[in-house]
Amino acid sequence: MKIRQLRSAGISAAVIAGLLLAGCVASDAQDGSGPAIGLTTAPGPIQVADVGSSHVRINDPSQLETPYGRYLAGRHAERVHDYRHAAEMFAAALADAPDNEGLRLRTFSVMLRAGMIDQALPVAQSLYAANPDQSSMVALVLAAKALKDQDYPAALSYLQTPARQGEQFSFPVLKAWAHLGAGDSEAALAALVQLREGDAFPDLAQGHSGLILKNSGDLQGAEAAIPIASKDLESVPAWLVRTLARVKLDAGDAAGATDLLDRYATGNRYSLEHVEADRANLAENGTLAPLMTLPNTGVADGLLRIASGVRPRTVDPSVRQPAHDIALSYAWLAVYLDDNHDEARLLIAGMLRDLERYQDSSLVLDEIEAGAPFSWRARIAIADNFIDAQNDEAAIALLETMSAERPDDIDALLKIGDILRSRSRFEEGTQVYNRVFERVKPEDPGRWRLHYFRGITYERSKHWPEAEADFLAALEVNPDNPYVLNYLGYSWIDQGINVERATEMVRQAVDQRQNDGYIVDSLGWAYYRVGKFSDAVVHLERAVQLRPSDPVINDHLGDAYWRVGRQREARFQWTRALSLDIDEDLIAPIEEKMRDGMGPPEVVGAAKEEG
Question: Beta strand pairing status for 57-58 and 48-49?
């Protein structure tokens, strides 16, 4: 099962470890360990079909007439992350065993991950009535409901539940906004002190302190609470910049608000949807839409920030990750509290995509209305779901429609080119990249990336002069980029031209990416091509360690082994290469080497240098 790489959220391992000890219930392991359910109905022979990204089917529906059958169906649905069907099965089983504490906990937990907050509330109430202190997640959900109903004393009462380590971050946010709703801004600020003292969520503590002071009328204190105006805004979250802009505008500093938003937009290409809307509103009518003026919207934002922070960096859908469960539950609670929180929907959709629930992800994205600030990004994400589900033509059709809607925008068109390039449709990819070039300004600093991508499609479709020109053009703009250095250097080495310069380029790339197997392979191959076979072995062995499943790297190591007299190991590497996902045009040459061995080496060097 593949592991999807995620962006680092910058949250410490200690924080995530704390969240794993939170009140997120029923967090048993995939091997079936966990709270005993204890259903007494004898299990019959039940079969549950694994249907991946769709839903659970039961081969014998009559088995669902027993509590145990429904429970087993729910367990299977939970394992394949079909949380809605899992919740329905567990709820049906719970109806037959209403006093089963373990089943109630599991039903509640899965309902949260399914976004079924309204259905989870009665279960949470029964759990809380039985034992108010057993789960801080239960108390969190009930407090969120009270906040939504503007029953702030009830919310604060639920939040008296001892916070397990996970809720040590969410409880202060809920307490702060509940105190503000009750009219006690001093207690609200005091509740956020715990977040300010730690280093887990400093932006959250600053931003929400500023909002609470702003909503209390202390604009000077609000601006002081968000000390970002003089910072390099490239690393500052957009929501924090938007919060400070509103503080400045309310204080009569419209120029300062405009300058802040303009500087952020200049230094950032992404996460600009709401920022651009703010800039347009300021320019047109000198106003900004209110931001988090009610406690429920403030809590929704806080839960979203925590969810984003604890979302795991890597996700293996075959292994349950409690931190992912918590992040997904918090994000759904954010939508429950603020139905307009499309940023939370984007996060939910991304986490469902991590779990390879592409259809479920797209259904969440469909809830973002056309024309909303995040609607464009949502449609791009739907295209990504099509791509991951191997439905390239649907993705391309959607992206072509989007490209036509914004004739000056390159994102949709560039993604089409990337699809074609990744699927080895290189000639088509070149044509799409040519269309992208028509939209890119010559001074665009990101133009090098387009030269690089088109260079790859040219090279792979046997148009080397055009490819070389693109790689060189990319290096003119970004001379130290390790990937361009590696691709061009490797290509020159493989052709036996510009070997000395190419080898130096690859060395520069390795210096920057010492754990990139492809780049290390290039350096090893450079030594091989110039006849330094012992040096080649050293680097190619390292490359195989880094990329053990790459057939080309294994083939290269086999060649190097042969040249240093290690024929048995050479044949092992070639055999290994043939067992991997190898291009058909490489099979015959490797089989020939295994059968006949290798002839004299074709060493290249300074004599073949060009230019």
Answer: antiparallel
CA-nearest of 419, 424, 362, 426 to 393 is 419
Q: Give the residues across from 49 on adjacent strands.
A: 57
- Quick one: tokens of 597? 């061995």
* Residues whose CB is less than 8 angstroms from the CB of residue 419 and which lie 6 or more positions away in sequence, other chains included: 387, 392, 395, 396
CA quadruple 209, 210, 214, 218: dihedral sign: positive
User: What does the DSSP assignment read for 157-219?
Assistant: HHTTSPPPTTHHHHHHHHHHHHHHHTT-HHHHHHHTHHHHHSSS-HHHHHHHHHHHHHHTT-H
Res. 198: pLDDT tops 70: no
Q: What is the 8-class DSSP label of residue 29?
A: -
pLDDT bucket at 49, cuts 50 / 70 / 90: very low
What does R_g of the chain's alpha carbons equal in angstroms?
29
CB 206 within 8 A of CB 231: no
- Supply the pLDDT for residue 164: 77
Quick one: pLDDT band at residue 449, thresholds 50, 70, 90?
very high
67's tokens:
């509590």
pLDDT confidence tier of residue 21, bands split at 50, 70 and 90? very low
Dihedral over Cα of 122, 143, 298, 13: its sign: negative
| Contact indicator for 380, 395 with CB cutoff of 8 Å | no
β-strands 4-5, 48-49 pairing: unpaired
The per-residue pLDDT for 61 is: 52
Residue whose C-alpha is closest to residue 168's, from 337, 338, 295, 16: 16
Distance (Å, whole) CA 86 – CA 81 = 8
- Is residue 16 packed enough to be buried (19+ CB in 10 Å), middle (13-18) or exposed (0-12)? buried
500's tokens: 């000395």
- What's the mean pLDDT in 227-246? 85
Q: What is the pLDDT, as a whole number, of residue 188?
A: 95
Q: State the residue for tokens 């959607």.
A: 398
- Residues 6 or more apart whose CB falls under 8 angstroms from that of 472 comprise 488
SS3 288: coil
d(CA 307, CA 209): 19
Residue that wins the pLDDT comparison between 538 and 610: 538
Task: Tell me 383's DSSP state.
Answer: H
Q: What is the dihedral of CA 238, 239, 240, 243, to 10 degrees?
A: 130
Sign of CA dihedral 490, 491, 493, 499: negative
Per-residue confidence at 67, pLDDT binned at 50, 70, 90? confident
Would you say 104 and 94 are in contact if contact means Cβ atoms under 8 Å apart? yes
3-class DSSP state of 58: strand
Residue 56 has pLDDT above 90, yes or no: no
pLDDT band at 165 (very low <50, low <70, confident <90, very high): low
Query: What single letter denotes the amino acid at residue 40?
Result: T
DSSP 440: S
> Within a 10 A sphere around the Cβ of 176, how many other Cβ atoms?
29
233-257 burial, b at 16+ Cβ within 10 Å, e below that, comes to beebbbbbbbbbbbbbbbeebbebb
Q: At what angle do helices 167-181 and 295-310 cross, to 10 degrees?
A: 170
Give the H/E segment covering residue 128: helix 117-130
Query: In the block, which residue shows the tokens 């919060």?
Result: 243
